[in-house]
Amino acid sequence: MGLPVLQVHRDTDTRICAALTTVVNQDDVFANFLLVASHGDICTHGAGALTANADEVYVHNILVVGHEADAAICGQSHAGSAPTTEGSPDVFVGS
Asked: What totals of helices (H) and strands (E) does the chain contain, helices first?
């Protein structure tokens, strides 16, 4: 049994806290004309760094983030990760 198949999370896709993802780690890898999010990308609330979960899928040597609807809910303070609520409709990572 392989890894779950996840939608690729991208720049301006939403987070559980109503913020939008802001891709800061790269500027040239796209899915559906939006930059692909990777580990450490922040959100429009100014923090809420993403934690990568796409095993063995990288953008410029940084793990990619796949949308995972059942991730733990974060607080507005963004002390940790700010889980995603959206991803690409047709670009996926996993197996």
From this structure: 0, 9
The DSSP H or E segment spanning 70 is none
- Residue type for position 31: A
Domain 1-89: which CATH number of 3.30.450.40, 1.10.1740.10, 2.70.50.60, 2.60.200.60:
2.60.200.60
Q: What does the alpha-carbon distance between residue 8 and residue 5 come to, in Å, rounded to a whole number?
A: 9
- State the Cα–Cα distance between residues 33 and 72, nearest whole angstrom: 28
Enumerate the domain spans of the chain.
Answer: 1-89
What is this structure's pTM? 0.86
- Say if CB 93 and CB 57 are below 8 A apart: yes
Task: Return per-residue pLDDT of the chain as tens, 95 residues.
Answer: 566 789 999 999 998 888 899 999 999 999 999 999 999 888 888 777 888 888 889 999 999 999 886 555 554 555 556 778 899 999 998 75
